[in-house]
Write a structure and sequence with these properties.
Layout (H helix, E strand, L loop, with lengths): L1 E6 L8 E5 L12 E6 L3 E11 L20 E2 L8 H13 L4 H8 L14 E7 L6 H10 L4 H16 L5 E2 H8 L3 H9 L3 E7 L19 H16 L2 E6 L5 H14 L3 E5 L3 H15 L3 E4 L5 H12 L6 E4 L11 E7 L17 H12 L2 E6 L4 H8 L4 E5 L10 E6 H6 L9 H12 L3 E5 L8 E4 L16 E3 L4 E3 L6 E3 L12 E4 L3 H11 L5 E4 L9 H11 L4 E4 L12 E6 L3 H4 L6 H13 L10 E6 L5 H7 L3 H14 L6 E10 L2 H19 L3 E5 L5 E2 L2 E11 L4 H16 L8 E6 L3
Parallel strand pairs: 9-14, 9-15, 10-12, 10-13, 11-12, 13-14, 16-26, 17-24, 17-25, 23-24, 25-26
Antiparallel strand pairs: 1-2, 1-4, 3-4, 3-5, 6-7, 6-8, 18-22, 19-20, 20-21, 27-30, 27-31, 28-30, 29-30
Length: 755
């Protein structure tokens, strides 16, 4: 009898061992799925990681031998997971302190995690029944149908279509359309035994058309120099950072690098931080690479993702995959290049649920395991990536001029503190911004307005007693959404009807405080009734095609004012944007996080880069109450190096990345006293092992989410420390705590390299 180790799709550490009945022994190999019983009555789709010819010894925590159960079935005759993928899963599990079961759940499309979830897409086709397959029988059939003219016409049409291309299947829809007949005529032929139907499996994946490598644009002198430097750096480094200003033409450099990789017979993974960016990038890549390109992200249906996964395992996989962070989990048989575009973006970091991985880091490790190269590209590098490039761990290539030498946008600071003091500004729009919008619209140009808060107002408040509605599950105020007339929690989704009077004092003086994108949209429509306005935030992009519609309408000029959150800062390319308004820089700068200035600089620089990409120089109006802050001046002067050096010194002084590794240890429980005691206990155990590297426990900024109380410990680990020993220490301490019956329902989870 054979025995197997498997991963179960559950948040459980380690692997599980099962026995294989004789009838399935021949099929057993790592990477196939089996049906594994667990507990009394439950059965799960499990993934085989190892096969043994002899019974392995397995013991529980008490040292007793574990009973090894039989599997209940097999689901594959060939592996659905490649050895390289399993190796990557194991690295992720170890590095991110996440159970393999969580990696399994995140990596595989849902249709591959259940016995009956995925169903191939089929279409109904028509063929002759066996008795009418010879020529003489066909003539008899036509004679029989002499008086049934409509049916005879359908059969004659079918025969013509069949003889024109005997290898091609004829669908019922095609036959109906070609014969201009009703469905009842086709059904009558089926009922009388002349024709029969059968189901043919068809893919859900559309064709991208023929590749057109001739559509690759020639590089400018600056781009060509950068491209050659990248190839040279790849001889010395596995990872190269391309630091190119906005609109410098990084995409064309990527395309040339992709073509070189394809010419070498290798595959490419192209990662983007947001689904929104795949719209424009997909069109550009498809125009060159046609059906060699596959798209993979969470807005695709589960069945589509299953079919892409299966295609990548086939003899004819996509040569290029364009996708968001989940694309790192796809199988690649001959990976040669990974491109991480907008590598600085926080969207590459998975927050909830586990595993809390960073797709950029995973992609780099994945490429190294495959002997592939990684190209990171951005106008505003993350501190970690730029530091790695500065000290020689990564190669560095700089592209400092825009394509066709178009000037970087002029960024003008608007001191809103002074304007309010002089009573020259009410609401979110300065006189300078309103004048610039009016001028741009008068010239038939476009405007982007950036406000990094969605909803109508961040909160409502009673002007009489100061009452503010809060979420019943989370320690946050509720955001007003005027279009749906509800107050919503952006943490748990809880909604509350907008009250007409204050429940505390009975006053009807309930007013919104602050400005969200919805309120900005309303006011712009009032101020500029001639404008064609669109809003791009989480509320307007929930459906699959919403991104394409919003971006397509703005690119084509159907809309000329686009209002949005950070979504609009992420690498989108529009030709006619003359003005960008950053409505409130201070909300980004005043966030209580050591990365606040880094993220604020990146967002402001990126959204500024949407202006003046084609033709004349663009204008950016940056509204702030803190005009003298160095970070504001560095954004204005497009001075990333000075920003980096200034921030680097702070990071070194206060023991933050890139000089230290961070690990957040999070505890949560429904009872606050219990989570407090567990956090104090865990903190004391960690300090015994790791000393002053441990900070806390403390309450996070939002200390209760979804009715669970949160506490956090922070580990600051110097570079060079034995991280494997630290991770083992964390696991041992967690096991010690969980053995205490008081903490049986306590949740402990880790965020490694948090953002």
């Amino acid at each position: 009898m054979k025995y197997i180790d498997v991963i179960l799709p559950l948040p459980l550490d380690g692997i599980f061992t099962y026995a294989v009945p004789n009838e399935w022994e021949a099929w057993m190999q790592p990477g196939i799925r089996v049906l594994a019983p667990l507990g009394g009555k439950k059965t799960y789709t499990a993934l085989v990681t190892a096969v043994y010819d002899e019974r392995p010894e397995r013991f529980n925590r008490d040292g007793k031998a574990v009973e090894i159960k039989d599997i209940k079935g097999i689901m594959d005759n060939a592996p659905i997971l490649l050895p390289a993928q399993l190796k990557l899963w194991q690295w992720m599990s170890d590095y991110y302190l996440s159970p393999l079961g969580d990696i399994f759940k995140a990596a595989l499309p849902a249709g591959l995690k259940a016995e009956d979830n995925y169903r191939p897409k089929t279409e109904t086709c028509i063929r002759l029944t066996e008795r009418y397959l010879n020529e003489q029988a066909m003539h008899v059939a036509l004679d029989i149908l002499t008086r049934a003219t409509a049916q005879k016409k359908v059969l004659e049409t079918f025969l013509r279509m069949y003889f024109e291309n005997p290898e091609k299947s004829i669908t019922r829809e095609e036959l109906t359309n070609e014969s201009h007949a009703t469905a009842s005529s086709v059904k009558a032929l089926i009922d009388r035994g002349f024709l029969e139907t059968y189901e043919r499996e068809v893919g859900r994946l559309g064709s991208g058309g023929e590749p057109h490598p001739e559509a690759i644009k020639p590089l400018s002198d600056a781009q060509a120099t950068a491209y050659n430097q990248i190839q040279l750096q790849f001889f010395r480094h596995n990872v190269v950072l391309l630091h190119g200003v906005t609109s410098s033409g990084k995409t064309e450099i990527y395309i040339h690098t992709i073509q070189k990789t394809l010419d070498e017979g290798r595959q490419v993974l192209y990662l983007l931080p947001e689904i929104a960016l795949t719209v424009q990038m997909m069109d550009r890549l498809r125009s060159v690479f046609g059906d060699r390109l596959g798209i993979y992200h969470s807005r695709y249906s589960d069945a589509e993702r299953v079919e892409i996964w299966q295609k990548q395992l086939s003899a004819h996989p996509y040569d290029i995959i364009l996708g968001a962070r989940s694309a790192v989990f796809l199988p690649f048989q001959r990976l040669g290049l990974v491109i991480v575009d907008e590598e600085h973006e926080t969207s590459f970091k998975q927050q909830d649920p586990a595993p809390r991985y960073h797709a950029r880091s995973v992609a780099i490790v994945m490429a190294q395991m495959a002997g592939a190269k990684t190209l990171l590209g951005t106008a505003t590098p993350s501190m970690e990536s730029y530091h790695n490039a500065q000290r020689g761990k990564y190669g560095l290539v700089t592209l400092s001029t825009r394509y066709k030498d178009i000037e970087l946008p002029e960024i003008e600071i608007v001191d809103v503190k002074d304007l309010h003091r002089r009573k020259m500004m009410k609401g979110p729009f300065s006189p300078q911004l309103l004048a610039a919008i009016r001028q741009a619209l008068g010239r038939d140009q476009q405007v982007i307005l950036f406000q990094n808060r969605r909803g109508f107002a961040p909160m409502i408040e009673c002007k009489v007693c100061g009452w503010v509605p809060h979420c019943q599950n989370c320690d946050v105020s509720l955001t007003l959404h005027k279009n749906t007339n509800v107050l919503t929690c952006h943490y748990c989704g809880y909604t509350y009807p907008v009250p007409t009077v204050c429940p505390c004092c009975g006053s009807d003086e309930l007013k919104g405080r602050g400005y969200g994108t919805e309120k900005i949209e309303d006011q712009i429509r009032d101020l500029f009734p001639e404008a064609r306005v669109a809003r791009m935030d989480l509320d307007t992009t929930r459906t699959r095609n919403a991104y394409e519609r919003l971006i397509g309408d703005f690119a084509s000029g159907k809309t000329n004012v686009l209002i949005g959150t950070q979504m609009i800062s992420k690498g989108l390319d529009f030709d006619r944007v003359a003005v960008v308004g950053i409505l409130d820089a201070d909300t980004m700068l005043n966030y209580p996080d050591f990365r606040a200035y880094e993220h604020a600089f990146m967002m402001m620089a990126q959204v500024s880069g949407r202006a003046g990409r084609k033709g004349e120089r663009g204008l950016v109006l940056l509204q702030t109450r803190n005009k003298d802050l160095s970070v504001i001046q560095e954004v204005v002067h497009h001075d990333y190096p000075s920003f980096y050096e200034e921030l680097l010194e702070e990071r070194r002084q206060f023991r933050y990345p890139p000089f230290y590794h961070l690990v957040y240890v999070n505890l949560r429980h429904a009872k606050e006293p219990l989570v407090d005691s567990a956090a104090i206990y865990m903190g004391s155990l960690l300090r015994k092992a790791l000393g002053d590297r441990v900070l806390g426990p403390d309450k996070p900024g939002v200390a209760r989410v979804k009715a669970l109380h949160l506490r956090k410990l922070v580990l600051k680990l110097e570079l060079g420390i034995d991280l494997h020993r630290v991770r083992q220490c964390l696991r041992d301490i967690q096991q010690t705590i969980m053995q205490d019956k008081r903490y049986a329902s306590l949740q402990i989870f880790y965020d490694v390299d948090p953002l």
